[in-house]
Design goal:
It contains 31 helices and two strands. By secondary structure, it is mainly α. The longest helix is centred in the C-terminal third of the chain and has 40 residues.
Length: 705
């Protein structure tokens, strides 16, 4: 017995090893998703032409890395199980319709670009739907989005207050508020789509500190969303609230509301006070001049939110739909068809009521109208089917869920989807990367294993097919990433070329623009600026060739005006008249109309129609008494007719105007006050043009008897 006790004392006591920290690969991917949804909304890069463009490029790179990682993980495991919600099939149908829209597209490369963006959002949706497994993943991703939204809102508020530089650097105000989105309306929409899904954090998190922080962030984001003063956002949130309440009455998730009633009541109280304070008649908007104005309520809303301008965009979309009802004008081609169909709409009886100028619209300010215009009836079917599948997927998940907390989460996610879809009636969130990211993330979470195991199919890939699929995915992602990086480099070269052009470094700008075109997958406005540089260099034929390329890439009024101007100088009167007639048929801006009418008079002189030329130019200087070029043209006209006295009178008038403008521009340029590169370029070009005009007028006066 003693021997046994001695042996026991001699043995070492077994101490259990400390538990090792482990994390599943799926959770790593869920955290990667959280990182992506945090980065993209905040991403901006100084020097890029448009904030959404930069977000799209970084989205390509991040999602490509995520997909390659997913494929590598599948190869390591020896099996790739891909969970495909039925919603993805509806989205796939829209990709097919987009490919068919190539038939009528003005520019097929624009269709391919648009399809690539759409495809990548679908792929990101699949990753979210596959990697989100439980409420912890949901809260991590939503918290990342909420924090990103807070920083965008804070940045916008600081611009509004004038603390940070805004869009124009004019010391604050609503027009300065663009944040990382490039537009205050984009920011307001982004914040609004997140409102309902973010409430999940209040009912799911266990930490009171994290819940309190979420509550404060929600309130701040809501306040900023109201600050942008967009009625469409308010209406969308109200409709979503009604939808969530109806859903709650149907599915009765009472327990999570009862358990978290203090947090929810506090949130509602804060939001209610914020809404009242920032209403159009409230103190804040009274200060910034947005108080209610006389007239009917609907009329005020319509006027304050540029209703007539939006309806103009919609009618032009309708004209496109009528011209190509089956397949539309091509995905992404609305902006390329806007001016031609604007002219067609103005020629209709309804169009005659729209007797005011609006600039070219890149989007229709209604995603459904734009879908009809770009994709026709098939696109309408695809969008209706997609929305129907969203509704079915959410309904079936709610109906089959036996967990009240899950049902409440799904209702809140549905609220975010409704906000997006309603706001799309007066805006274009589907064309904005940050807004689309919110929708795709919400849908991915709602159709993930965290909430439902229905309405999906599972594809299992093994052995050789697995290796082949992984190789294809990797090659495709690398290819897209390379194209994206080249495009981004082209954009920076374009900006550099514009700066060189503004500084008068014309030959260097031409070289830079050509380099940008070589890298760009679908160069557009670069051709316009290249043509501008070619004109300054005296390469008129090359400039005309570059402007002709803009007809299918960058369709704007200045393109047609410059083509007409070059055609006049090159003696092609027919081409010049055709382009001038088109510009005037689009109800252009006053300055554009002035330039077009002037060219109309010059064309008449070149054609020998002196009576018409005299009528056009005299009417022009009667309405614009300080337009020196009109007097120069009249002087040339009268000199050609042998009317020396009238010619001298108009030349002398133009000379006085030119001298006065030269003195004013030189005074501005030499004032010592800081000016932008764009303003410097404008002044320098104007002084050069006026100096040449002065020399020409003095030479013409010297030739007169």
């Amino acid at each position: 017995m003693a021997k046994k006790r001695t042996q026991q004392r001699g043995r070492k006591k077994q101490v259990p090893a400390p538990p090792r920290f482990t994390i599943s690969a799926e959770r790593v991917f869920a955290y990667a998703v959280a990182a992506i949804v945090f980065i993209i909304p905040l991403f901006i890069w100084p020097g890029e032409t448009e904030y959404g463009y930069g977000k799209t490029i970084i989205m390509y790179l991040l999602v490509s890395a995520l997909l390659i990682g997913w494929a590598a993980w599948a190869v390591r495991r020896g099996v790739w199980k891909i969970r495909i919600p039925w919603l993805a099939y509806s989205a796939g149908f829209l990709i097919l319709v987009g490919l068919l829209s190539l038939i009528n597209a003005v520019n097929g490369l624009v269709v391919i670009q648009s399809l690539a963006v759409f495809l990548y959002f679908i792929l990101f949706y699949l990753v979210v739907a596959n990697m989100v497994r439980d409420s912890r993943d949901v809260t991590v991703i939503l918290y990342a989005l909420l924090i990103a939204a807070f920083f965008t809102a804070l940045y916008g508020l600081l611009q509004y207050l004038g603390v940070m530089r805004g869009a124009f650097g004019n010391g604050g105000g609503l027009n300065e508020l663009i944040s990382t989105m490039g537009n205050r309306n984009y920011l307001g929409g982004f914040l609004a789509y997140l409102m309902f899904p973010s409430v999940i954090l209040l009912v799911r998190l266990h930490s009171r500190i994290l819940r309190a922080i979420a509550l404060l962030l929600l309130a701040f984001n809501f306040g900023t969303a109201m600050l942008v003063n967009q009625t469409g956002i308010v209406v969308a949130l109200i409709v979503a609230l009604i939808g969530v309440v109806i859903g709650w009455l149907i599915f009765r998730p009472v327990e999570p509301v009862r358990r978290n009633r203090v947090w929810l009541i506090t949130l509602l109280a804060i939001l209610a006070v914020t809404f009242v304070f920032e209403a159009p008649a409230g103190p804040l908007n009274s200060v910034v001049g947005l108080s209610a104005t006389p007239g009917s309520f609907i009329g005020r809303l319509w006027a304050q939110n540029a209703g007539k301008t939006r309806s103009w965009d919609w009618w032009i979309g309708y004209e496109m739909f009528k011209a190509h009802p089956i397949l539309g004008v091509g995905l992404g081609n609305y902006k390329l068809n806007f001016l031609p169909y604007k002219a067609k709409f103005l020629a209709t009886p309804r169009g005659k009521n729209y007797n005011f100028y609006i600039p070219r619209a890149a989007q229709a300010h209604n995603d459904y109208v734009q879908t009809a215009a770009e994709l026709g009836i098939l696109g309408i079917i695809g969008v209706v089917g997609l929305i129907g599948m969203i509704a079915y997927s959410l309904w079936i998940a709610l109906y089959r869920s036996r967990n009240e907390a899950d049902r409440f989460d799904l209702l809140l996610l549905t609220g975010g989807v409704i906000t997006f879809l309603v706001h799309a009636l007066v805006s274009f969130p589907a064309h904005l990367p940050a807004s689309s990211l919110v929708l795709v993330t919400i849908l991915g979470i709602a159709t993930s294993r965290a909430y439902t195991d229905t309405a999906h199919t599972t594809v299992t890939i093994k052995r050789v097919p697995l290796a082949a699929m992984a190789a294809v995915v990797a090659a495709f992602c690398v290819f897209v990433s390379v194209v994206a990086v080249r495009d981004y480099a082209a954009d920076f070269l374009f900006q550099a070329g514009v700066q060189e052009l503004q500084l008068g470094q014309t030959n260097l700008a031409i070289e830079t623009f050509n380099h940008s075109i070589q890298l760009d997958f679908c160069p557009r406005q670069t051709y316009f600026y290249l043509a501008t540089a070619e004109i300054q260099a005296g390469n008129y034929k090359q400039a005309l060739a570059d402007l002709e390329k803009c007809r299918t890439r960058y369709v704007t009024e200045p393109v047609y005006l410059n083509i007409a101007n070059l055609a006049v100088n090159l003696g092609d009167i027919k081409t010049a008249q055709k382009n001038i007639n088109f510009i005037l048929s689009t109800h252009p801006s006053s300055d554009m109309a002035l330039q077009a009418e002037y060219l109309n008079g010059i064309i008449a002189i070149r054609a020998g129609d002196y009576t018409r030329a005299s009528q056009i130019l005299n009417e022009l200087v009667k309405r614009h008494r300080d337009f020196e070029r009109g007097y120069i043209a009249l002087g040339d006209l009268y000199r050609a007719q042998g009317l020396t006295v009238s010619a001298r009178k108009n030349y002398e008038t133009s000379l006085k105007l030119i001298t006065a403008r030269l003195a004013r521009d030189n005074s501005h340029l030499n004032s010592g006050k800081p000016i932008t590169g764009q303003e410097y370029s404008r002044l320098r070009n104007e002084i050069t043009m006026l100096t040449q005009e002065k020399q020409a007028v003095e030479a013409s006066l010297a030739k007169l008897p």
